[in-house]
């Protein structure tokens, strides 16, 4: 009887203790890809917004409560991002450091660096909405990074790192949800939604060409997820039943199709450009439609607060409604996935594309 109770107690303790998620793949590949370089928005921002004047922040609890050390870092998540798991799988460290983190130096950035800024978009008007880092400036930081890398590693080694590195670009959601459909900039008057997609795809193409000219060869562009299923969009859709906003999901699919076509053109035009688009749309939709397959219990609301609208400052430790086990949720706050989803996305990206880059 005493043994049984002890066993029960141990089981209870184990179920409370959240084990670290394993790395998506064995690191047999480590060394082949010398660095991971990340551009984009909050899906991949590792804390670049911490030091800038914007209301879009997450460097306080409960953000980061499942991060190593329970530390809020400016990631819009309870734990790590997909890019952190990918860095780990490549043997490049457990987390990708933010380029603007004053505690980090070129020594850290030589193997992994993140230029992303939460709230930004392909369109300059998107980053203006919440006063975050515009996408063109991420490119400028990358140019500066190349110079610093040359000083640190020497010209030949820096060139090799830039050429052999893996680049991940994750951007676009905010152009639609924070800009076009929110009607806060003039874009909805200026462009039909199809024209706006073309405008964004053009900017993405110019960006990809620019990093190619600066030496990048292995680049993965992640398309849009089912953006109409984010809890914030469901909340805005409450009058119509609170389901996914199909209109937004259709735009995401159409945009992804145009990105595919643009990427195929660039691959044909630019020698040795190993550019791939790897959609997370289908995977995320499958999680939302078949949650039990992944161990999820809630797909409609975020874990933080009521889960219907909280993010950034509204998702804080004073909010009494925050859930206990984020692993049961697809969404952490009203706009961003949980660490568990990020881990599954990393696995998917790894399986689908990254293994190709390792050959
Ligand atoms: C965005 O702004 C930058 C800096 O002002 C400018 O160089 C760039 O051409 C703009 N991009 C577009 C698509 O207008
Ligand atoms: C990725 O591949 C691993 C190993 O083959 C497998 O266990 C895992 O289920 C795959 N994950 C996804 C999301 O495809």
Automatic annotation (TrEMBL):
EC main group: hydrolase
A Pfam short name: Lipase_GDSL
N-terminal signal peptide: 1-22
Keywords assigned by UniProt, alphabetized: Glycosidase, Hydrolase, Signal
Molecular function terms, GO-annotated: alpha-L-fucosidase activity; hydrolase activity, acting on ester bonds
InterPro entries in the record: GDSL (IPR001087), GDSL_lipolytic_enzyme (IPR050592), SGNH_hydro_sf (IPR036514), SGNH_plant_lipase-like (IPR035669)
Its EC number(s): 3.2.1.51
Residue intervals passing through the bilayer: none
Keyword Hydrolase: yes
UniProt key word Signal: yes
Family the entry assigns: Belongs to the 'GDSL' lipolytic enzyme family.
Name of the featured protein: GDSL esterase/lipase
Source organism per UniProt: Apostasia shenzhenica
């Amino acid at each position: 009887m005493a043994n049984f109770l002890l066993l029960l107690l141990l089981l209870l303790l184990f179920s409370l203790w959240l084990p670290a998620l394993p790395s998506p793949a064995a690191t047999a590949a480590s060394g082949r890809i010398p660095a991971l370089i990340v551009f984009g928005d909050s899906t991949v921002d590792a804390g670049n917004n911490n030091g800038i004047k914007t209301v879009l922040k997450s460097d306080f609890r409960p953000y980061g409560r499942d991060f190593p050390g329970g530390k809020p870092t400016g990631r819009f998540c309870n734990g790590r991002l997909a890019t952190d798991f990918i860095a780990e799988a490549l043997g490049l460290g457990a987390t990708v450091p933010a380029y603007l983190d004053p505690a980090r130096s070129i020594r850290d950035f030589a193997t992994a660096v993140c230029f992303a800024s939460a709230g930004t978009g392909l369109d300059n008007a998107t980053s203006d909405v919440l006063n975050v880092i515009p996408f063109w400036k991420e490119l400028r930081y990358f140019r500066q990074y190349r110079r610093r890398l040359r000083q640190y590693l020497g010209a030949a080694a820096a060139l090799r790192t830039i050429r052999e590195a893996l680049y991940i670009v994750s951007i676009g959601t905010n152009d639609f949800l924070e800009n076009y459909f929110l009607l806060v900039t003039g874009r909805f008057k200026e462009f039909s939604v199809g024209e706006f997609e073309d405008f964004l795809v053009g900017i993405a193409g110019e960006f990809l060409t620019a990093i190619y000219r600066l030496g990048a060869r292995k680049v993965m562009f992640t398309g849009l997820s089912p953006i109409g299923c984010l809890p914030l969009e469901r909340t805005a859709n409450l009058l119509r039943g609170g389901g996914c906003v199909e209109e937004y999901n259709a735009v995401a699919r159409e945009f992804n199709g145009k990105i595919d076509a643009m990427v195929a053109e660039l691959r044909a035009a630019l020698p040795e450009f190993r550019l791939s688009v790897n959609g997370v749309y289908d995977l995320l939709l499958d999680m939302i439609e078949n949650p039990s397959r992944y161990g999820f219990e809630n797909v409609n609301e975020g874990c933080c607060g009521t889960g219907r609208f909280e993010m950034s400052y509204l998702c804080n430790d004073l909010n009494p409604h925050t859930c206990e086990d984020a692993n049961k949720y697809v969404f952490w706050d009203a706009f961003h996935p949980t660490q568990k989803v990020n881990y599954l996305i990393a696995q998917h990206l790894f399986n689908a594309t990254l293994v190709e880059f390792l050959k």
